[in-house]
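Input.
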Amino acid sequence: MVHTTLLSANGAFLLLTILDVGRGFVVPKCSSRATQKWSAKVSSNEYLMPGMQAIDASNEELFHKLESLREKPSFRFFSVDILASCEYMPQELFECYTESCEIYPAEEEEVSSRIREVDRQEHAFDLDGWTRWDMPSDDYYDLEAFPEGYTEYDGSEIWKFIHNRICFDGYDYDDEHWKADFNKAVSGLHSMISAQVLRGVQEKMDEGEVIQLDLKKEFTRRLGANGETPRAIENLYFCFMLLLTAVSRAKARLLSDCSNGNIESDASEDLRDIFNSPLLNDASVSLAAKRLQDHATQDGASSQNLWEARMRSRELLRITNCVQCNKCRLHGKISILGLTTALQILVGPTGRGLDPEQVKRVELSALVTTLHKCSRAIQYCQQMQ
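Output.
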């Protein structure tokens, strides 16, 4: 089973990572020959390999375009319920009093009235929806002011709950079923966060902080082909491919939102640059989403049981209320919303996808933000090869 191999693979849940490439961390460029070797090291999957090689060749360029977009208000301010109670497991109250854990709401004037208005108008209760986002409040949090960072929070119990209780049991990695694909996507998100954690540790070390950890060995343990989760990086690429295809399908909606004011008009140029990336127009990249769709529609039972995926995607969001690090909770919720929005667009209620016009602004913002996080994680994994 995919998820049973993941229980201790990545350790801390959302120790959430480094500040960002723009703050001094540069990943060296890789030659095409080097990226081909890298892809061969982390995967032997024939249908994923061409897309993985395409990502290795073009991800750096896409990453810098995404870096520019993340500075725009629509992709940096999110209203998140930081005080929501954990409903899934008994916990001792743990207060993270360190500065690395804490976050504070943005000043009222920093968040446009348009963002607040759209979020309030679009928020609705959907009994059988793919997502159940927090009700918008006056409190918005700025991802630029509180970027991912190494916080020392240990969320391993959260991940155990996710892989044991939320992911689908009884499905092996290579099973031709959408439930196996769902598990791989969640594993890929976990791998993304693991890469962020290690990158955050490296950033602390580069700043002179003493951390007793061998990064190479820890990378191998968490993400290496000979580590505890041999296909962790392959799953990271699989997740990234789903996100890329979902963003590509949302192109018309995102550009329309720039025109109607739901997204800042000056974000239009950044979005157009992103949509011009070969990765958003590459058939080898979109093959992961096609196979997911094929699995979801291969027979009547598959499509009729998609409610199980929708239920689990909602639970993924709610389990983050058990994360006792505010910065980790913030970034974790946004990352999970991004993945579940991708699934919503690619699979929808019948397995054939959902019109992005029906997706909420905050869901699209989380989707693009998570694409950026995943792109950065792949950069780090390439740098560690």
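The two ends are 27 Å apart (CA to CA).
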